[in-house]
Specification:
Shape: globular
Number of domains: 4
Helix content: under 10%
CATH topology of the largest domain: Immunoglobulin-like
Distance between the termini: 44 Å
Mean pLDDT: 75
Radius of gyration: 24 Å
Number of strands: 23
Largest sheet: 7 strands, mixed
Number of helices: 1
Strand content: over 45%
Structural class: mainly beta
Length: 297
């Protein structure tokens, strides 16, 4: 079994926090043994890394799209599952017997392909600028040249995509602190690093049915759909697939079935809240299809 060791100073209050940091940075599986000194007292503990959603492990009854990746504790360290047929995972634990690179695994209506990450893992780097070899690095809170000085514990991936005139791309994923879930990208052209640019990351989505949504790591939520306004009515309620955190939402609704003449367009939207809004219009003689979109946090 591969053994990966990390030694660094950090004001952690317990070994569970330490184990969580290591697990999230490396997607370790099985058991992890942690030895350290907490408040001046030597401590040691064993942790079992379960299939935890926060670590990116496969979940039951979840909708997966093509190119989604996930992890499983029956796979060796550094191996993962990539979705090659979209669908919904089964409601039971996934069984993987004698895994091999390139094997496919059926999981409900999802088909996974087993992939191995062959990139070298260099462990902790104290300077993002010095992490210029292709591979994976762990960035701690005392590392230099991060997107933000108070950004803590991140995974950094470095990729060189032109060997004649080296052009380097760095992708940094923050998994702890107030920036958790954010992804930052920058490039090195001609030996000079460009600025870090934050990228929007999808953390949740539902693209099935007539009402759909996408939620980003920054908290931004985009929702849209179709609703039928019944004949002989002057308003209809539109409910979001998921609730917004804030009631400060921008929404738009318009008539979809434009082939029907003498039916009014939407006059106004009102009664906004975290769960939906009301669309008002003049009295309609026929059922009216309304397309809507809402954006907010």
């Amino acid at each position: 079994m591969p053994i990966e060791s990390y030694v660094f100073q950090r004001g952690l209050s317990n070994l569970t926090d330490f184990a969580d940091i290591i697990a999230k940075s490396c997607h370790l599986t099985g058991n992890i043994k942690v030895d350290g000194t907490i408040n001046g007292t030597a401590s040691s503990a064993d942790f079992i890394l379960n299939n935890n959603a926060s670590l990116g492990y496969r979940q039951q009854n979840k909708l997966y799209s093509v190119n989604d990746i996930t992890y499983h504790n029956l796979l060796p360290t550094g191996w993962y599952l990539e979705c090659t047929t979209a669908g919904t995972s089964s409601s039971s634990e996934l069984t993987i017997s004698n895994p091999a690179i390139g094997d496919t695994v059926t999981d409900g209506t999802v088909v996974w392909t087993i992939i191995k990450n062959d990139w070298p893992n260099y462990g902790i780097t104290l300077d993002c600028n010095a992490a210029d070899k292709d591979g994976v690095y762990v960035v701690t809170d005392n590392a230099e040249n991060k997107p933000f000085s108070d950004l803590i514990y991140s995974k950094l991936i470095t990729i060189t995509y032109n060997t004649t005139t080296p052009r380097i791309i760095q992708i940094l994923y923050a998994f702890a602190g107030k920036y958790a879930g954010n992804i930052y990208i920058r490039g090195n052209y001609g030996g000079k690093w460009g600025p870090w640019q934050q990228q929007e990351v999808i953390v949740e989505k539902s693209l099935e049915g007539i009402n759909q949504y996408i939620k980003y790591a920054s908290g931004l939520i985009v929702q849209w759909g179709l609703v039928i306004a019944k004949a002989n009515t002057t308003s209809t309620q539109i409910n979001y697939p998921i609730a917004f955190i804030s009631s400060a939402v921008t929404a738009l609704a318009e008539r979809a079935n434009t082939s029907i003449i003498n039916d009014s367009a939407v006059a106004c939207l009102s009664d906004y809240n975290k769960n939906g809004f009301t669309a008002y219009y003049t009295l309609v003689a026929n059922d009216l299809s309304l397309r809507w979109i809402a954006i907010g946090y």
